[in-house]
Fold this protein.
Amino acid sequence: MLSLQDLRDAHNRIRPFIHRTPCLTSRTIDQMAGATLVFKCENFQKIGAFKARGGMNAALQLADSERRNGLATHSSGNHGQAVAYAAQQLCIPAYVVMPRTAPQVKKDAVRDYGATVIECEPTIVAREAGVANIVAQTGAALIHPFDDDRVIAGQSTATIELIDDNPTGKPFDVIMAPVGGGGLISGTALATYYLSTTADGSKTRVIGGEPEGAADAVLSFKSGHVETAPYINTIADGLMAPLSQRTLGYIRQYVSDIKLVNDAEIRAAQRLVWERMKIIIEPSCAVPLAAVLRYRNEFERQTIGIILTGGNVDLK
């Protein structure tokens, strides 16, 4: 298991390459939720998403000989940008396998960082086969989007900063993040376990948010086995990947619950942040807030930290 020192080392390692993003609040949204919410704004991060943290940490831990032929990954968008950004900083090539249905704004951004985009069918099998082929052809080092402790440690640093920079003066009762492949929620849960307690001294709970249209994590959480979603159909394009054994292990040990929300609730939460906080977030990013609003009675009168994961949305 990753130690607190591993998380601290990751934070120090990536510090020159990332922004320390702000923690913002909204009195209006607090009133609607009946709770005190603190938003960690990773939509202001390098590449427009928290993924810069994990991608950079993994790339920096590779030996020169390992990364000599470049970096490779598969991604619906944000992790691809992270790996492309890391490769740009290290002056090496990057190869990113992306589903053909990924938002054009994300494909364009990956290319803008100098990476080669290889499109594939929008399935996890096609993505994994595509990146395996690229690694075989080029000798590039694979940086998996979530099934990698180096990536998980990097993602944890957003929560380290959220806890350190909490503007409310009140300890967090709950910290929330969306769940796709589980890299962020794993890092969030570890950092929370090590660093955050409630006012009465108990551990702060970690709760994930997942779209009903990609509901594999909630099934896996209950069964203890990596499950597949009954169907994939959601606006939250960044949350379609299934968990790995690694991330499921972290989730089962350190996450209290996973809440489901539908696309209408995701859109409403996204619009609320755009209109009330005047900041741009993508649909996947809005899932935890949608959960707080849907399950209001469970969150009332609590202090809740929410990782706003990214802002890479196609405005068209």
Observations:
- The chain has 14 helices and ten strands.
